[in-house]
Amino acid sequence: MNQQDKVAYLQKKVKQIGGISIATLLSVVLALISRNYVHSNVDHTLWSIMSIIAIVVASLCAILLLIIVIKLILTMFKN
To answer: Is 1 strand, coil or helix?
Structure first.
């Protein structure tokens, strides 16, 4: 693997990490908004479901982010 391939690989991983970080952040914000609406005087069912979905999506994004970072670290130490 030459230097150009390494740079392209790292750029790809940085873009993946950035995209997943944004998705995680948006999911957490949606979960917080949903939690606030659950405690207000609006229909609780929709916001309860949205809150659960947002928490699950944020958790999956965080796990995916962790996997990508670990894979990137292992790849860097391998070379």
So the answer is: coil
Number of domains, the chain: 1
Q: Which residue has the higher pLDDT, 16 or 35?
A: 16
| Count of beta carbons in the 10 Å neighbourhood of residue 61 | 20
Using the Cα atoms of residue 28, residue 32, residue 37 and residue 38 in order, give the sign of their dihedral. positive
Model confidence, pTM: 0.72
- Which H helix or E strand runs over 11? helix 3-38
- Report yes or no on 3 lying in a domain: no
DSSP labels, 23-62: HHHHHHHHHHHHHHHHTTTS-HHHHHHHHHHHHHHHHHHH
Rounded CA-CA distance 41/77 in Å is 54
